[in-house]
Amino acid sequence: MENITLENYLEALANTGCSDNEKLRQASEFIESAKEKAGFCEAMMKIASNPEYNQEGGFDVNLAAAIQLKNMAQYHWMNSQDGQLGGFNDFDDEEPVEETKGVIISQEDKEFVKTNIIQACAHAPSFAVLALFEEIVLVVAKFEMPDRWPNAMTEITDLIQHGEEGKVFGGLTALKQVVKRFEFEFKQNRVPLDEIVDTLFPTIENMLVNLMDNMGESAMKAKNIIMNTLYLANNAKICKRYRDSDNFNSLMSVAFKGLTQEIPEEFTTPTESTDIIDKLNKNDFWMLKKKCITLLNRVMIQLFKENEAEDDLKALSKIFLENHSKELIDIAFLILDLSLTKFVASEVVSCAVRIINRTDKAPNLLAIVLERHEDIVFKYSIPLLYLSPHDIEEFTENPVSYTRGLYSLTISSLSARSYAIDMINYFVTYKENEKDESVPPYLEKFLTHCVETMSQPSEDFRIKESIMLAIGHLAPHILPYESLHAGVENILKDHIFPELQGENDFLKARALWVYGEMPIFVKDSHHAVEAVSNTYKCLLDECIPVKVLAGTSLHKLSKIKEAREILEPGIDKIIEAYLKIMQEIDQDELVNGLEEIINLFDDKVAPFAFELIQELNNKFIKIAESNADSLSDATLAGNACLSAICRILSAVSKDKDLLCRIEEIIYPSILLCLTEEGLDFIDDCLDIPVLVVYHRKLISEKMWDLYFKKFRMALGDENDEEECENGGIGFEFVPVMMSFFQNCVSFGGESFFNYQIEGVTPFQLMVKSIRRIITIERNVFSDVYSTSVCAMKLMGTILENHIGKIDEVLPDFIKLLHSELEANPTSKIYRSSILQTFSICFVYDTSLTYKCLEEQHISDPMLKFFFSSMGSFTKTYEIRRVLYGIASIISSDLTKAPELLKSETSAIMNVVVVLINAYVNAKEKEIKQELTEASQMKVIESQGLEEVDDVKEILTKLKEIKQNEGKLMDFGLDVGEDDDDEADELIFTAGDLELYDSPLEKVDAPIYFKNIMSELQTMNPDLYNTLTGFLSKEQNDILAKSFEKNEMLLNIEKE
Fold first, then answer.
1. Could you give the CA distance from residue 416 to residue 1048 in angstroms, rounded to a whole number?
2. Which of 229, 590, 782, 793 has its CA 20 to 30 A from that of 875?
3. Neighbour-count burial for 290-309, b at 16+ CB within 10 Å, e otherwise
């Protein structure tokens, strides 16, 4: 293959389209090999550009060559001559194709493409080839502009100004792609775009104005290209040129002209044919209107943002309000009017609705729209929600695909339907004064309008389906107004419920969805029983959308007391129905529904938990082995299966024999998730072994095997240079693995020290891994500490669970703690975790800790840092560990303590006062937050049907404590810096399931300390007097009140 001729390439390309499999194979192999040869891109461009190579009626060799050239550019242009492989850069939405990596395009080929691609756009033999050449221009522009393609803009300018139609088209097409290359650049990186706009846009604007009244095919295509280019230039940010008032007005004028031009009647005739609709949506007339209205919408978004527009746009905002706002809003309403009786491209309608919705950001614009308030509510809202012919066709012919898109059909950010829902929610519930607590004036009117419309017989089921959709989305807006609740339940009874028993599957599916959105309004017990009974029957329906929506709604209705009572005897049949549906469709919302049913009836699940987990596990394995995309419905459903398994495990947690059987069947799935192919499922999967180990309270051989595999996955192979430095594929999941590791330490018993794999015990592996975790994180993230916090947790877990058994490693632990503190970590949470672990060293063995400190000559720095940091501990879990450490210090033989500690013995109680005060205040805050969340969740989950008096009573008690006692004053020590914010703390405590019972949590910390002091008063009164003798009356009062308040809080916790 050293000397490949053009004829060789032509023959191979022609054979890629033949029916002879052997010729096809040979041709494909030839082309793959030839890609690595210099001259391949040059040959493909020459073939793609020359129509003479195409045989009449034969295979399109031009197109085949253009595809090869486009793929070469798209996947290999970024690969450099030194063998460094690139990937798609920030401009790309796609990911590189792995099979095509490694090919290096020769510099000669690159130069040939750069020199000829723009001219090739002007001579493309077909629009299909031109479309591929466009993509090549974009790729080359991404990697070569502005510095390494200096002639590009000169060539484009020459073509645009040439006058010959083909060359003008080629120049405009190339210009559009170059502009696209800079579309999302900002600041200095956007300067080249502004230069291009200043140089060429006056020319193309004049061209657009001159072409505007020309309705010929070529003129329409040229107008579309130019308008698209104007849109791309101003999409992310209005260009500098158009921040000038004259140029801005010109831009608005030409966009309005294109938007308001009449369209031939043949392109506005209503049709139910999806094929015709697809063609009309892509028609040049509608494409032009789409580009014009999209440009106007983007300009409006930038001028009227949630927060104020940029300073240099404020003048434009004023110009827009004075000169263009009314015209744009009138056009938007004109489009909506037209859509009631004519065909209007869906994206044009969608954009018109968005423009109307956007006026809520500008009072002056909103005032104009509110002049048509009644039209919005009563004329446009329901028709805009009509199912499209595409929806109806898909529901009938491809119900699985329709069902997977159910949520996008109702709330997708891209659908006209979703914007119409936003419009209804805003304008139906609009009030001039947001503080006015009365019912919005149009809300009750709209509900009445819906009832009147549904009461009128109609053959068009879409009307009622749209009304039900609108009412369902209004549920949260209706909820605050109790005066409407009874009327809404009547709507459900009289107009929605009958559809549960009806023959129309569209209406049945929508009725099920409505009941799922509005269970709070089902107050009548007979209504509740009937709604739930019929929803259950729909689980057994033949129509896939119907039974899926029954599955996603039943669990919400099941929270009604009467519903639970009727469903409870048949829970096994309900779960069986869910599993049957899950065999037909991968839908995470469906699995979530099953999970909620299991949660509601957890005490009834045990008899068939094993079979249920088997089904879910088999479903998961099938999904995992299908290699579905990480964001696909299948992957989401796979994760939902794992989540449901976790819920079942929690429900049967007391049955240890059952947990053992479940461990056997689920183990292969866990191992699958520890591979690179299973990473999409690892978050949910890692919770399963935590639940098994925590509730079995022993570690089986399989779980020890998993223990070793998890560490290997997280930390990689030490013998592999890259993994030794950067860790394994699962390093980022170490925080999620923590509960499993901690429970293995806690329940491992002697096997933690004796069980071996390849001569290494779990204890030895963990000790070694602690330092490796810290080292890897420093290598990968020099200033991030989230995984290092986990290392400290592991160290503390070993110390608190195996007192007296690990003396040989304590010196190394203390040495590591000192070195990490000495490195002055920037994270307050990491510093705190180090000091908490240091405190647990005293709990483990105070005398041995003193000895280690003295032998390493670090007593003074460690103790000074420890005691000077007391004001920085603000969370109960921090303070608890520190209090236990200090309690160990004062209950030990202080004569063996380092000199610094002996000399400051009397000051220890000053620290204790601060800590116990802080602990009680933190505990109060945590309980308040928990009770508030519990109260809210109880209201939400019960849909307002369950009593919450007990929660309110507890909250009242807390309020009384606060009023009577006041916040205990902070004493003495300076408070440290503010804690890391909540987001940072979430990172450091990451783990979806934190199940681990620390031995230090068995007794409340202040009570434990109080007991230690009582024992000390009896056993060593001299030390007791030394510790307490220097406390002031104020400090003693604070301590007494703290203990008293802590008792109150403990009683509240029990309640």
1. 56
2. 782
3. bbbbbbbbbbbbbbbeeeeb
pLDDT number for residue 130: 92
Handedness of CA 540, 546, 551, 557 (dihedral sign): negative
What DSSP assignment string belongs to 662-725? HHHHHHHHHHHHTSGGGGGGHHHHTHHHHHHHHHH-S--HHHHHHHHHHHHHHH--TTSHHHHH
Task: Name the least confident of 14-28, 228-242, 975-989.
Answer: 975-989
Q: What is the chain's length?
A: 1055
* Residue the block writes with tokens 């494409």: 287
**List of residues 6+ apart from 17 with CB closer than 8 A:** 59, 60, 64
DSSP 8-state code for residue 757: B
Q: Which tokens hold the place of 317?
A: 């905002």
Predicted confidence at residue 982, as pLDDT, reads 42
> What is the C-alpha to C-alpha distance for residues 142 and 114, in angstroms, rounded to an integer?
12
The Cα–Cα gap between 888 and 842 comes to 6
Start-to-end CA span in the chain (Å): 83
Measured distance CA(212)–CA(258) in Å, rounded = 7
How do residues 879-928 score in pLDDT, each as one tens digit?
999 999 999 998 888 888 898 888 888 788 888 999 999 999 988 888 88
Do the Cβ atoms of 230 and 251 come closer than 8 Å?
yes
- Letter for the amino acid at 73? A
Asked if the model's pLDDT at residue 985 lies above 60, the reply is: no
In this predicted model, what pLDDT tens digit does every residue of 718-732 receive, in sequence order?
888 888 888 999 999
Contacts 24+ apart (CB under 8 A), 16-23: 16/59, 16/64, 17/59, 17/60, 17/64, 18/59
pLDDT band at 937 (very low <50, low <70, confident <90, very high): low
Residue 846 to residue 891: CA distance in whole angstroms: 9
Q: How far is CA 1035 from the centre of its chain?
A: 49
Report the mean per-residue pLDDT for the chain: 86
Q: How confident is the model over 853-881, as a mean pLDDT?
A: 91
Burial per residue of 939-954, b for 16 or more beta-carbon CB atoms within 10 angstroms, e otherwise: eeebbbbeeeeebeeb
Q: How far apart are CA 190 and CA 232, in angstroms?
A: 13
Say if residue 451's pLDDT is above 80: yes
384: nearest Cα among 416, 351, 428 = 416
- Could you read off the pLDDT of 65-78 as tens digits, one per residue? 999 999 999 888 87
Paired tokens of 1050: 């403990």
Average pLDDT over residues 536-540: 94
> What residue type is 867 in one-letter code?
F
Distance of CA 403 to the CA centre of its chain: 21
Contact 666, 613 (CB under 8 A): yes
- Three-state secondary structure along 472-517? HHHHHHHCCCHHHHHHHHHHHHHHHHHHHCCCCHHHHHHHHHHHHH
H or E segment to which residue 604 belongs: helix 602-605
Q: Show Cβ contacts of residue 705 under 8 Å, excluding neighbours closer than 6 positions.
A: 757
706: its two tokens = 């998993």
Q: Are residues 782 and 837 in contact, defined by beta-carbon separation less than 8 angstroms?
A: no
Angle (CA) 470-476-480 rounded to 5° is: 125
Q: What tokens appear for 416 in the block? A: 């006209």
Residue whose tokens read 């002697």? 750
Asked whether the bond before 146 is cis by omega within 30 degrees of 0, the reply is yes
Comparing 930 with 954, the larger pLDDT belongs to: 930
| Cα–Cα distance, 45 to 61 (Å, whole number) | 11
> What pLDDT digit, counting tens, does each position of 316-358 carry?
999 999 999 999 999 999 999 999 999 999 999 999 999 999 9
Residue 875, phi then psi, degrees to nearest 5:
-100, 145
- Contacts for 319 with CB less than 8 Å, ≥ 6 apart: 245, 248, 249
Question: Which residues, in sequence order, are bridge partners of residue 760?
Answer: 757
DSSP code for 628: -
